[in-house]
Amino acid sequence: MATPAFDSSVFTRRGVLAAAASTLLLTACGQPGQRPDDAASSTAPGGQELVVGASLELTGRGAALGVLQRNALELTAESLNVSGFPVGNLRRTVRLEIRDNGSDPRLAARHAAELTRQDQVHALVGGTLAETSMAIVGVAQQLRVPFLSLGTCDDIVLPLAERTYVYKLTPDAGDVARRMAQLIESQRVRRVALLAVEGLHGDSGVRAVRGALRAAGVELRRTVRLSAGGQGFASATQRAAAVEPDGVIIWATAPDSGNAARELRRAGYRGPLFFDSGAVAEDTLAPRNAAAVEGAYAVHPSCLANSTLTATTTAQMARRDFTFRYLQRHGTFSGFAPYASDALQLLASAARSASSVDRGRLRAYLQTQVTEGIAGAYAFAPIRHGGMAPDSLGVYVVSRGSWAPWS
Asked: Are 148 and 276 within one domain?
């Protein structure tokens, strides 16, 4: 899929974040920072490697997103391992231990425990589904191992007092919903139906959308939940179309997002569609969905907009290079792919700053990461473990089978 041009002409909070970052684009170089007092000790091994365990949805209903994360992890590990990265007086490399959780939360929790206790990983990454991420959260907290979640649910990092070892890379639902409500209001859409998938991701969306639409003066005529198993979409979309909305929000990850759009069109709805960021995967633009999603909008981080011709900043050039390498290896590129790349780079940066791969020290230094990644800008802090900056979000539209910036 072709990647559209990126407009970086407006100086925003993202620029401030990038300038203030102790590292540029999560590179593993530079001087270590001051050591936090609360860095806990760890039983994780030493040696020459940063060992990262990943429990991903390589099969099952989450595979549309999970496979992308495996691809990104492998590409980024290869890049980091060309010359290694400094950690204290050593140059370390990354070793990945990747498991397929089959989109099963129980298996994801088991993976997390095995990777931590048996494989002695220094950190965990994974869980593109909210349910698999939440299953890993409990293990990460109990075993005191840093966990970087790729799931799309705000509760993954809340309440913070119970999530001290947990960090989330995807945007917060409230930020996505507010940007979506602004878009809907600008399109003079006054009556909206919401289709939200059952489960934690949909729960976050329902709460966020209700508040955002109320603030924007847009009427939410009906909320309908989509079965997490992908069944009964026809009846759900018929209920949404029956209230004759001016617009429909689909809050679901791929493949549910594309399936819901297709069923909406079959139900007779012909108005605009608005996707949250979880829809942005190759599956949503698959030929079977092409007619249904053409012209649909999505709120998504800036990694969707990257041009090999206009890249001028460090972040833009890194996005360009990552996209080019991903396309070379896999033929197509999805905007959801860079999250795992950013997770691995954040861990390498935290290890560099901490001069250690100790689990407790990695946790402490993750919460000081303020930088521009491939997917967008991150601003972790002791009081904020969901680090995607709101300024990273943009609006995109499906045009001729690909995502293009909306203006």
From this structure: no
**Alpha helix positions (H), 232-337:** 233-242, 256-266, 290-293, 314-330
The pair of three-digit structure tokens given for residue 30, joined into one six-digit string:
């530079």
Q: Where are the alpha helices (DSSP H) in 355-398?
A: 359-366
Q: Which residues pair with 386 in a beta bridge?
A: 168
Cβ–Cβ under 8 Å, residues 239 and 264: no
Domain count, the chain: 2
- Residues spanned by the domain of 141: 13-171+309-392
pLDDT of residue 306: 53
What is the distance between the alpha carbons of residues 54 and 98, in angstroms, rounded to a whole number? 5
Range in 16-20, 300-304, 330-334, 385-389 with the lowest mean pLDDT: 16-20
What is the model's pLDDT at position 282?
85
In a domain, 366, yes or no: yes
Sequential DSSP letters for 70-87:
HHHHHHHHHHHTTT-EEE
pTM: 0.86
Nearest Cα neighbor of 294 from 255, 327, 265 is: 265
Q: What sign for the dihedral angle of Cα 240, 241, 244, 250?
A: positive
Residues whose CB is less than 8 angstroms from the CB of residue 187 and which lie 6 or more positions away in sequence, other chains included: 247, 272
Beta bridge partners of 377: 372
Token duo for residue 211:
């508040």
Per the document, the length of the chain is 407
